[in-house]
Design goal:
Number of strands of chain B: 0
Strand content of chain A: under 5%
Helix content of chain B: 55-70%
Largest sheet of chain A: 2 strands, antiparallel
Number of helices of chain B: 2
Number of strands of chain A: 6
Structural class of chain A: mainly alpha
Helix content of chain A: 55-70%
Order of helices and strands of chain B: HH
Radius of gyration of chain A: 27 Å
Largest interface: A-B, 28 and 25 residues
Strand content of chain B: under 5%
Strand order of the largest sheet of chain A: 1-2
Distance between the termini of chain B: 44 Å
Number of helices of chain A: 22
Oligomer: heterodimer
Radius of gyration of chain B: 15 Å
Shape of chain B: elongated
């Protein structure tokens, strides 16, 4: 008893230490020794009578005391832009992208762990709870090896900045000086918490201690999210600076510098993107292990792992386009020209590629779900309807990827009678594209609903009504989405722009109401047979790998788009990029570079997985728990 | 409950609920943005 109490006490102390680590940066920030606020006051005391210079915030339009140096006016030369015999921007692009890939992965996976560990704690079925716990442990194990590499890549990134862009990095770190040490401390807190969380797994696996362990994962994720928000504030500042005057001089309010026009949309977009990406990578890992498995037991385990990772990833993928819309809306609100450059100008073709990738993500997800229905007895009844879903997805996809104008030779231009195709050109507008993507997402939701009820028959007394209602609701949702898209052609642009909101609301209504209704209907449902984990086609696993690769490629693409929209500015309208590389690359070059980054990431993460597997072989933490395929699956397992 | 499970009744009620719901969604979400969903009909 005494031992248990001591253990509990130690666990609580561990949790308190984590909370302390979380609060440490805030406490450190309170005296604000690095803000530079004291410096002018001290100077003021020395030079009495000297006028304090004030500046006007470029975004908030408030006045503040000038507390920093103006943005340097750089010139092309070894002082501001030292270089190797290579394009510095490409080197930085590579370092940045790799750090971001790994950073996203190690921030997303602990969130998955938290969710899965929580599912394990609240699940009444002990065997299933143990499986969830093992799965969460497997996830964090993968993340831990990647974590070290993330830190190394972060170091490489800083050295790349210092070596190749010293003037710019000096300016940026000068502006963010008040929070630089906070970032470092949060990183320290993240590392400490992660290691305590990982190494404390076995010691805190039951009862009260398990709850403490789960609480640690919450603290870990809060720290990770704060870390990401701070990093986002730098890119937010570069795109939409605030807290400085028109010369780029810091005006003493660090919150203004952090809380720029695009910070919150970027935060939301990135957190959802990271989660979707993390899910994709873990799903691909599981798919790889599934394909390489020698036993049915292993196949069952990795099939289940792949499904859970995919489901979590897609759960965050579905709202991702809506977060993207919000970000774009804020970009337009901040600088209309920036929005036009992105979506209607120089970078518009990259958005067509992005649309193609988004479509591939949803097509892969749907394909996986249809294949996954093959491991359920009773799901055959849906097979004959899948062709209609394919039709809906294909139509939505084709409309979604149709460009507004085509890149053509003069002869082609003449033959077509203009840049816009007389028929297809009509689908290259936002009204049609909003309809297209919402049809795709609604169809994915429908596939999920079918999957969730694949091997079950509802036993509630109103089952017939429930089924008819769901069918009618989905049909009306499709009619509403497509109807709004068509309606958009007949009304002025200023009214049309608002139609995207009810379209999104229609899709989300299907997501929330139909999932909720389906769950109620399937409570206590009759099972037609178990889910036979592991008995799934190899094609489905390639779909998971496709999903992960598409995520990775799209992240690289969107990062490039977001970064290159600044055109020839290091900090938009504040600090000009005077290096020889202040131009926008061709679409082909960018695509090759993104592909190289994707390839490098996947090769390196395969190495990480291999290292992880070595550790498992040498020191198994725990005997493998009963794998899902070995016993019939309970209803709650999906 | 048995009346609800009659397919004809179920379809009619479902259509009324779904159409009413989506019409409300369209109207109010446009209205919240200061826009008129019924613009074309008023023209």
């Amino acid at each position: 008893m005494g031992l248990v109490t001591r253990k509990n006490l130690l666990a609580i102390m561990g949790l308190c230490a984590m909370v302390g680590l979380l609060l440490l940066p805030i406490v450190m920030a309170l005296p604000s020794p690095a803000t530079g606020e004291e410096a002018p006051a001290a100077d003021g005391a020395k030079k009495e009578g000297e006028k304090v210079e004030k500046g006007r915030d470029v975004y908030y339009k408030t006045e503040g005391i000038v507390s920093g140096a103006p943005a340097p006016k750089t010139v092309d030369g070894p002082r501001d832009y030292p270089r190797y015999n290579f394009e510095s921007r490409v080197l930085l692009w590579f370092a940045n992208q790799q750090h971001l890939y790994y950073g996203s992965f190690v921030l997303a996976v602990p969130i998955f762990c938290m969710i899965i560990e929580f599912m394990g704690v609240v699940t009444k079925d002990k065997a299933l709870a143990k499986r969830y716990d093992q799965l969460a442990y497997d996830f964090i194990k993968i993340s831990l090896t990647a974590y070290s590499l993330t830190a190394v890549l972060g170091g490489i990134l800083i050295f790349t900045f210092l070596t190749l862009y010293p003037a710019f990095f000096g300016y940026l770190s000068g502006i963010f000086r008040p929070v630089m040490h906070i970032y470092a401390l949060i990183f320290l807190a993240e590392s400490g918490t992660l290691y305590i969380y990982y190494y404390g797994w076995d010691k805190m696996k039951e009862g009260f201690l398990k709850w403490i362990h789960l609480s640690m994962s919450v603290v870990l994720n809060i720290i990770g999210t704060l870390l990401m928000f701070l990093a986002n504030s730098w890119i937010g500042f570069m795109m939409s600076p605030a807290g400085v005057d028109e010369q780029g001089r810091f005006l003493g309010n660090i919150w203004h510098v952090i809380h720029t026009a695009l910070w919150n949309p970027l935060n939301l977009h990135r957190i959802l993107g990271n989660m979707a990406f993390g899910g994709g990578v873990v799903a691909a890992y599981a798919a790889y292990k599934f394909l390489a498995s020698k036993t049915d037991e292993d196949r069952a385990h990795y099939d289940w792992m792949g499904y859970i990772a995919m489901a979590l990833g897609v759960a965050f993928l579905i709202p991702l386009p809506f977060a993207g819309y919000w970000l774009m809306r804020e970009v337009y609100a901040y600088r209309q020209q920036m929005g036009i450059t992105l979506m209607g100008g120089l970078l518009a073709w990259l958005f067509i590629i992005q649309a193609t990738m988004i479509g591939i993500l949803f097509l892969s997800t749907n394909y996986y779900l249809w294949q996954a229905m093959g491991r359920m007895r009773g799901a055959e009844k849906y097979q004959r309807y899948i062709k209609y879903l394919v039709f809906l997805l294909a139509c939505g996809y084709i409309v979604f990827i149709t460009p507004h104008t085509m890149v053509m030779t003069p002869a082609e231009l003449k033959a077509m009678g203009g840049q816009q195709h007389p028929v297809l050109g009509n689908y290259g507008v936002m009204s049609a594209k909003n309809g297209g993507i919402n049809v795709i997402i609604t169809t994915t939701i429908l596939s999920f609903v079918w999957y969730m009820r694949g091997n079950k028959v509802s036993t509630v007394s109103w089952a017939k009504f429930g089924n008819i209602f769901m069918g009618v609701f989905f049909a009306c949702a499709y009619i509403n989405i497509i109807g709004l898209a068509v309606y958009g052609y007949y009304i002025p642009a200023n009214v049309r722009v608002g139609l995207s909101v009810p379209q999104v609301a229609t899709t989300l209504s299907c997501l929330f109401f139909m999932f909720a209704l389906n769950s109620v209907m399937m409570k206590g449902a009759k099972q037609l047979g178990p889910i036979e984990w592991g008995k799934i086609s190899a094609r489905s696993q390639y779909a998971l790998i496709m999903l992960a690769t598409a995520f990775t490629w799209m992240m690289g693409l969107m990062g490039y788009i977001r970064s290159s929209v600044r055109l020839f500015w290091h900090v938009n309208e504040i600090m000009r990029d005077n290096s020889p590389w202040a131009y926008t690359h061709t679409v082909g070059f960018a695509a090759n570079m993104i592909s190289f980054n994707v390839l490098f990431f996947w090769v390196s993460i395969l190495f990480v997985f291999w290292v992880g597997s070595l550790a498992t072989k040498k020191a198994p933490v725990e005997a493998k728990v009963g794998v899902p395929g070995a016993v019939p699956q309970p209803a709650g397992s999906h | 409950m048995s009346a609800l499970n009659n397919p004809v009744v179920a379809v009619i009620i479902s259509i009324i609920v779904a159409v009413g719901y989506f019409a409300m969604v369209d109207h109010y979400l446009m209205d919240m943005q200061g826009l008129d969903f019924w613009y074309l009909l008023r023209g």
